[in-house]
């Protein structure tokens, strides 16, 4: 949709016909990650000023849906998977397999373009971190987090998420 590519525009600035044309001209890929793992990553990267994971989670919950940071906002509100028909949804933890398939589908050489990915080691580490950090949370915080991310948990197969219960 070349005539619209002359300047950066948000998708919301287009009318419905233009949105359909713009989205139809791209291969749409959505990368998703367990929301609890996203929170752990943000905490470890120092996104909050809290000294503990529990107080960081309370900051996230207190910020609410409207004022929450893009870093921990539910994916459903950011990526609109109910409105946009993504061609591929790539799950964190399966990057090597899914990226290989994606590159193959795009007709690109698979072997030379993929970085070294250690998904299984990362998954094990996040499983251990999740157990440790989830145990720091109160029952009320766990319930509120599950509610906060309820649509992400319903839309994507985060089967082993601590928030799924």
From TrEMBL:
<keyword id="KW-0325">Glycoprotein</keyword>
<keyword id="KW-0808">Transferase</keyword>
<keyword id="KW-0333">Golgi apparatus</keyword>
<comment type="similarity">
    <text>Belongs to the sulfotransferase 2 family.</text>
</comment>
<dbReference type="InterPro" id="IPR005331">
    <property type="entry name" value="Sulfotransferase"/>
</dbReference>
<dbReference type="Pfam" id="PF03567">
    <property type="entry name" value="Sulfotransfer_2"/>
</dbReference>
<keyword id="KW-1133">Transmembrane helix</keyword>
<dbReference type="GO" id="GO:0050655">
    <property type="term" value="P:dermatan sulfate proteoglycan metabolic process"/>
</dbReference>
<dbReference type="InterPro" id="IPR018011">
    <property type="entry name" value="Carb_sulfotrans_8-10"/>
</dbReference>
<keyword id="KW-0472">Membrane</keyword>
<protein>
    <recommendedName>
        <fullName>Carbohydrate sulfotransferase</fullName>
        <ecNumber>2.8.2.-</ecNumber>
    </recommendedName>
</protein>
<dbReference type="GO" id="GO:0000139">
    <property type="term" value="C:Golgi membrane"/>
</dbReference>
<dbReference type="GO" id="GO:0008146">
    <property type="term" value="F:sulfotransferase activity"/>
</dbReference>
<keyword id="KW-0735">Signal-anchor</keyword>
<keyword id="KW-0119">Carbohydrate metabolism</keyword>
<dbReference type="GO" id="GO:0016051">
    <property type="term" value="P:carbohydrate biosynthetic process"/>
</dbReference>
<keyword id="KW-0812">Transmembrane</keyword>
């Amino acid at each position: 949709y070349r005539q619209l590519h002359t300047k950066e525009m948000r998708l919301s600035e287009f009318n419905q016909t233009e949105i359909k044309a713009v989205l139809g001209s791209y291969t749409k890929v959505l990368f998703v990650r367990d929301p609890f793992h996203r929170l752990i990553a943000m905490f470890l990267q120092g996104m909050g000023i809290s000294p503990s994971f529990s107080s960081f989670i309370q900051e996230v919950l207190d910020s609410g849906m409207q004022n929450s940071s893009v870093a921990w906002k539910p994916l459903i509100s950011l990526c609109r998977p109910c409105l946009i028909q993504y061609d591929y949804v790539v799950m964190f933890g399966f990057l090597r397999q899914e990226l290989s398939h994606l590159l193959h589908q795009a007709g690109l050489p698979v072997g030379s373009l993929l970085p070294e990915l250690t998904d299984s080691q990362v998954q094990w580490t996040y499983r251990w971190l999740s157990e440790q950090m989830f145990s720091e949370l109160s029952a009320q915080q766990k319930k509120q987090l599950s509610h906060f991310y309820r649509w992400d948990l319903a839309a994507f197969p985060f089967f082993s998420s601590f928030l799924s219960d």
